[in-house]
Amino acid sequence: MGQDRGAAQAVQGVTDKQLWFRGMSAIMDEMNGLDIRNDYEHDENEEEKDRFRTSLEEEWRIHNREELLSGLEWIREGGHRVAFEQMRTFMNALSEADQWKCIHSLNPETGRYHEYLVVKTYMYKLPPAGIAAWDWGRYANLCRKSAYVGFITEVEAEQLILEAALEAQSAYSSWKEYAVAFLAGRLYWLEQTAEPLVQRQVNYVRNLFVQSNSIYNKVDWNLNLSLQ
After folding, report:
1. CA 105, CA 107: separation in Å to the nearest integer?
2. What is the reported pTM?
3. pLDDT exceeds cutoff 60 at 142
4. DSSP 126-159
5. Contact call for residues 38 and 8 (beta carbons, < 8 A)
């Protein structure tokens, strides 16, 4: 009961705008084991801070503010969405038969084969922004993690996230469309299409729509972020 009360206190004062920002990286928060019941609030826990610090170092080679800003700039300039769009444009110019011929000409043991398979699967299911949701979700996740461990302030994190949030909101029509694009981007990045792995990723996404207390069910996608 004490834990539940602590969780309730933790989210007091969190605005809809802040919840929207958390929604951008909610799928990653699910994967990282944060609690959907308190909107993925971070505890003031040094052990957890060390875990996130290690994650930033190992996954992004980020050890300080300067390296963080460099990583964020890479995402803003293109991230993974550029290569995905190049492949989607190429595949779109081919007939259905030639698309499969292209894929089957690749070694199925290579990441390239799975990248093309993901592109083929999602090329007509995504809006023009493609997998930008994956990049923007990671961007928001990086900002929030970095504020948590002290590389930037919470105010700086929100200012940075707002820019990406406005782009995401104009590029996608709903949390569902955003989440599908994020999922496609993650599978593209993983370079894996095995059914068990795909299903695990799908389950993370599904949880955000079936749980009534999920950010996706609490905050309107069309929230006016500029006026909050």
Report:
1. 7
2. 0.90
3. yes
4. S-TTTTHHHHHHHHHHHHHHHHHHTSS-HHHHHH
5. yes
